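Aim 2 progress update. The chain analyzed this quarter is reproduced below.
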Amino acid sequence: MTWPLDRSRAALLIHDMQAYFLRPFPQPAAPPLADLLSNVLSLREACAQHGIPVLYSRQPGGQSRAQRGLLLDFWGPGLSDNPFDTAIPDALAPRPDDHVVEKTRYSAFHHTHLAEMLAGLDRNQLIICGVYAHIGVVFTAQDALRHGIKAFVAADGVADFSRHHHDMALRLISDRIGRVMATHSIITALSQQHLAVSGR
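Predicted structure tokens:
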């Protein structure tokens, strides 16, 4: 897919970057976590610089059995309500003007107000970064397509349990769902639009 990225139509979604979901990556200063954090932070700063809305998805801790539903069978009870599980890294913490979506399923669109939020912001493109590529990122990108929202996934701004899962997710998104771009390519596309507008 070769959709052009339009900063006047785009929003950034930082998907599930909570301590519980980052814990499978045991070495914060080593790949993939160090690269993931660096690239997500770069995307957040670039989008903030260009006036692109920044949104976060996160799961509440201490969900009931009813809230967990069938996810209980796959993953158990999930996050506790302790900040040790629910916290987003300080460097990435939502700012006052950012938007936060609470979700209890893989997709950030499922039973949330994300689609309405994007419509209210007059945005129909969604840059997605975060974890995990083959689960929440894929399901969110798929639901974006269903809502008529173009998904742009940062290839090196998402991470997964393994290289196999990561590559599988990006291939599926690229082939059937949206556009996959490197973080630097996303930032360059946004910056070039800024230069083009400034040069008029």
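The beta strands are 10-15, 54-58, 99-102, 125-131, 150-159, 179-181. The chain has one domain: 10-198. These observations will guide the mutagenesis experiments scheduled for the next reporting period.
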